[in-house]
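Hi U.,

Before I forget, here's the chain from the pilot set. I'm dumping it here mostly so it's searchable later in email.
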Amino acid sequence: MKKSKPCSYEVRVPASSANLGAGFDCFGLALELFLTVRATVHSDPGARSEARSSGVDGSAALPSAPEENLILRAMRHAAERHGLRLPPVRLAVRNRIPIAGGLGSSAAAIVAGIALGFAVCGKKLTQENALRLAAEMEHHADNVGAALRGGLVVSFVGADGNVVALRKKWPKQIRVVAVTPKMTLQTAASRAALPQAVEHAAAVHNLQRSALFLAALDDKRYDVLWDAMQDRLHQSFRQALIPGLAEVLAIPRMPGLLGVALSGAGPTVIALASKNFAQIGRAIAGHFERKGLSATVRNLAVAQEGIRVAGKPLAKN
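Structure:
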């Protein structure tokens, strides 16, 4: 009797940059830098799930055991929350997203795991359901919203746990120059640097500028993005954790440079730009290098679509 071929499912999830300056914990932008995961169901029911990873620095050292691997944990979370029986799987992971770099590596892993958890169980997953499950694990929705939907996503988590993530069209002429200094910075440490309370004036400052950011995109007033990305809620408090960040955020305007911001919790910095990408990348990297940190510069387009499962976008509802 001919042995049946094991079932396999593949997902591709984009990286993402959160905050974009003033839009703290609500703006997420998907980037064309991808995590790809193939899950193959073990034919032996007694087998144990495992993951093997390759890609950017540190990928090969990611945990392979189901209790520790974030993708496998997300698969189990999705299955348990919906009473599904998760079969043992073998994951082949190809990761291009810097680990703990501020470009949504954990969000991409969580989104990939949730989608694969439903796929191997033979169940349909919608964006709405995926958003809620992913936010439960990530504890905020900015990166996961962008990873799921693509483009610029504005999100919030309601008191009941439901997540709303609305996608905004992104102008193709604006690219992202992402500069990642070679250092370790865990999200928890970056979060701990933030104050427990903020001044009224700082809150108003960011509200005005996050609203301006969206209006500027709608009206194609890209000249005001520089002002719209100025922040007073989180970036200044994180400067002590990232050598060179203060100098990068104070970088003068130059042709093509539309705005600069810390990406998520860092240490990556992003620049929105319309031209002179290499020059802008060198200028930002130079500030890190003068502090003794080498830096990787990536010139990225915005990913206009989010996760793809077996070559298809995730169903909207």
